[in-house]
Specification:
Layout (H helix, E strand, L loop, with lengths): L5 E8 L4 E8 L15 H11 L5 E9 L1 H15 L34 E5 L8 H7 L1 E5 L2 H8 L6 E6 L3 E14 L4 E2 L2 E2 L21 E11 L20 E3 L4 H11 L10
Parallel strand pairs: 4-6
Antiparallel strand pairs: 1-2, 1-3, 4-11, 5-10, 6-7, 7-10, 8-9
Length: about 270
Amino acid sequence: MSKDSYYVYVYIDPRNFEEFYYGKGKGSRKDSHLTEESDSEKSKRIQAIKKAGLHPIIRVIAQDLTEHDAFLVEKTLLWKLGRNLTNVASGHYGSKFRPHDTMHTQLTGFDFQRGIYYYNVGEGPHRCWEDYVTFGFISAGNGVRFRDAMIGFNPGDVVAAYLKGHGFVGVGQIKEPARPVREVIIKGKPLLSHDLQCSGLGDNATSDDLCEYVATVKWISAAPRTEAKWKAKSSLYTTTHVRALLEGQPETIKFLEQEFGIRDLYALIS
């Protein structure tokens, strides 16, 4: 180990062989905590070990590191055993590690990345654009593949709503993931209890395979169907699918930004 290289070290309690502190440094940094006098949990632990006539076990666990790598190794160890340690700070790179108490849910940036999506309104007996704008949602269903398309949306995703025969009618951002229409609460009461223009939204409401699946949306910009945004004989992207990623469709992205007065769609998902 060269004198200028960094290392990561651990303090171990010889009374129970429990690791209680991780650190990074170079030279004699690993021994500096032995002479500290503070009210920190680390210092209290060291003093208790000494009072028992023992000495903390100090071991270097990674060596010959750059400072960047040392910070990263330290943070990895802190994340893994953080709740059992006396380290006060969470270490560098904290934002790159998921919080411990979030294993029960999916997190943006860790388990999925936000995206910009084309969404096909697919008007018919079960859905209409006016209800979407009034109550802030989008939906699809009455079939497993349509249900699965809706489930693919994640909070934070940007959706560009397309109405067949008209054009793009709105750009919004998903607030809550899709779930069966019977479970959706909007404006303090069940969605199906609202005065909807499309009475078929609740068809097959008790069936997880055939009911409509609804994701709530915050509309950033929305237009009446009579003012839909379109450019004839252009290369604007459309598809019959419910959901399609607009990555790789720069002309469509630019068109949406210009027509809906949005400076940068990608900034919304960053």
